[in-house]
Write a structure and sequence with these properties.
With 604 residues, the protein is an alpha+beta fold. 50% of the residues lie in helices and 20% in strands. The chain contains 15 helices and 17 strands. A hairpin with a 2-residue loop joins strand 9 and strand 10.
């Protein structure tokens, strides 16, 4: 493709040349017409002069003078020949005197036409002008109206035409010189004002588009000291480049921010294409599956979905293709085969009104699912825990209506035991409810804990006796007062003692040990029962959680006892510690602060 420089030069050259040719053509036409007109006019004047003189001489029959006039006139530079003939085409006078008296050697329609019309006839051809004029009789007589002959005058206009052509050639050369001068002047002017400046704009734009740095704006020199459209173009381009760079910086900042947010999200984030292949996954999603993002990109959600949930995943995908967002629960498979319960919230994305994939946020709800299952199990256990002692209590109440005095005493003892069991369970449920609703409050005061411990041991005596378990109390000789609340401490002790009895082997023993440790009084409840498996220890104080061995052995319980103890101890500014070995026993120690207003923190 030609550059603008070549295009402008060619266009201007073609237009200028066409204009020059047109001007020369007009000049030549006008000059030629003027030459012919001038020559014809001069020939006509000369012809008129001959006509006047010849007419007088012809009328007087002065043929000698007529011939002398013709001969003298033929000496003129531009006269070719002069002929005077009568009406019978006989030559009366001729520039060649040897032809006088002879008949005219040629026949011309101009002669007949001039006689017929009685007026002058002219014709121009081959560089000469011919005039044929009718000759009349004497003036002031009737004979003047009669035609007595004709005058033939030929005048050569070739010298005049040659002079005109030389003049035209000179004018043409001068015009060409002027054209070349103006053309090169125009070219240099256009090159300086337009082409070079446009080239600077083009170079700057090309440099930027090719990825080159653009440290400064495009600077274009002014035309004749003032700005014009090219300066405006450069300024507009500089403005656009600046705006584009600002937009790119903002876009990059927004993308960096979005990437930072996506990379830092605790929830998983995935972006899939129209074929449901992963285009992007954030670290949280990759970590959830135990893989790296690079190991997931290019795969499909079906590759990490539990086989039993593939149909559900496909149904949700069809919804997104229809333009609908969806939220659903699914099970994923980690790299180690672990099932992960997740909540997926997906939204479709479209490009040019075509489905281009989806964006999904994946929330790990495994803990929530486990908690829901634990809640369900707790409800079932709590129902069983309430139903069993209630049924026994009703049966004992019915049996009290009959039987011996000894049997009634046994029935009454069993009834009290079952009612007390229900009371403890209901009390745990009420406390757990207050803790969950953030309505559990304590009022601390200095208290002697020994009577409280003895009361708690007495409350569980019937439960211990039923399993032939002995409870031994061991303590320092003198114990300081502790900063606690009586009812909350009883609740804690009853839970610890009940658990120790429940998980001890029959005919076993429980040791309650009280001692001072730093700024705390420690109360340790030790049993020699089934113990807690090591993998369950970190979770044993979680609400609704039960150890695996307790579940397998179908030992009754709700899974909220140690949760209540742990929450209450935090409210009392103390803490709980659990030491256990499976099949050997468990020791649960609580630490109560001594200082009424202090909270120095529990010992390690």
């Amino acid at each position: 493709m030609y550059s603008i420089k070549i295009k402008l030069t060619l266009i201007y050259g073609a237009l200028s040349l066409a204009g020059l040719l047109l001007m020369l053509l007009i000049f030549y036409s006008a000059t030629s017409a003027s030459v012919y007109q001038g020559a014809e006019a001069r020939a006509e004047v000369l012809s008129d002069e001959f006509e006047y003189a010849v007419e007088i001489m012809a009328a007087e029959d002065d043929l000698f003078s007529m011939q002398r006039l013709v001969e003298k006139s033929s000496l003129l530079e531009d006269v070719i020949q002069i002929i005077v003939i009568d009406t019978q085409n006989k030559i009366l006078a001729h520039t060649n005197n040897r032809l006088i008296g002879q008949s005219l050697s040629f026949s011309s329609p101009m002669i007949n036409e001039a006689i017929r019309k009685r007026e002058k006839i002219s014709q121009t051809s081959d560089g000469r002008v011919i005039f044929v004029t009718p000759l009349h009789g004497q003036v002031f007589t009737n004979e003047f109206h009669d035609v007595i002959g004709t005058l033939w005058v030929e005048i050569d206009i070739t010298p005049t035409i040659a002079l005109t052509q030389r003049l035209f050639l000179g004018v043409t050369l001068a015009a060409v010189a002027i054209f070349l001068m103006f053309f090169f002047g125009y070219y240099l002017t256009v090159k300086s004002i337009i082409i070079d400046r446009l080239h600077d704009v083009e170079t700057g734009i090309a440099h930027h588009l090719q990825g080159g740095s653009l440290p400064s704006a495009i600077m274009i020199k002014k035309s004749f000291g003032s700005e014009d459209e090219i300066n405006t173009l450069a300024q507009t381009y500089n403005y656009l480049i600046t705006s584009l760079q600002d937009s790119q910086k903002k876009l990059q900042a927004e993308r960096d921010f979005a990437l930072l947010v996506m990379e830092g999200m605790r929830e998983g984030l995935t972006i899939t294409d129209a074929n449901e292949h992963f285009e992007y996954v954030n670290p949280a999603y990759a970590n959830l599956l135990g893989l790296s993002p690079g190991q997931i990109i290019g795969r499909t959600p079906g590759d990490v979905t539990h086989p039993e949930d593939l149909d559900k995943s496909a149904e949700e995908q069809e919804l997104r293709k229809g333009g609908k967002s969806s939220s659903y629960e699914l099970r994923l498979l980690a790299s180690d085969g672990t099932e992960i319960n997740v909540l997926i919230s997906s939204a479709p994305r479209f490009q040019d009104e075509k489905y281009a994939g989806s964006i999904s946020v994946i929330t790990n709800i495994s803990q929530r699912a486990r908690l829901e299952q634990m809640k369900s199990d707790f409800i079932n256990r709590a129902s069983h825990e309430l139903r069993t002692p209630l049924s026994t209590a009703i049966l004992m109440a019915e049996l009290l209506e009959s039987g011996t005095a000894k049997e009634k005493q046994q029935f009454l003892t069993t009834l009290k035991e079952q009612l007390n069991r229900q009371r403890l369970l209901l009390n745990d449920l009420l406390v757990a409810g207050r803790i969950e609703n953030k309505r559990f409050e304590v009022h601390l005061s200095p208290i002697d804990i020994l009577p409280i411990i003895e009361e708690a041991i007495s409350s569980v005596k019937l439960q211990a006796d039923a399993r032939q378990i002995t409870i031994q109390l061991e303590m320092d000789e003198s114990l300081p007062l502790v900063n606690t609340e009586r009812q909350s401490l009883i609740q804690v002790l009853l839970n610890l003692l009940s658990n120790a009895i429940k998980f001890s082997n029959p005919q076993g023993g429980i040791l309650v040990k009280i001692y001072k440790e730093g700024q705390f009084v420690a109360i340790a409840v030790q049993d020699h029962g089934i113990g807690i498996p090591a993998q369950d220890l970190p979770h044993i104080a979680t609400r609704f959680y039960r150890s695996q061995n307790a579940t397998q052995m179908e030992i009754q319980g709700t899974g909220i006892g140690l949760y209540i103890v742990n929450e209450i101890m935090q409210s009392l500014h103390g803490r709980m510690k659990i030491d256990s070995i499976e099949k050997q026993g468990t020791t649960v120690t609580i630490f109560l602060p001594l200082e009424p207003d202090g909270d120095p923190g529990a010992p390690a």
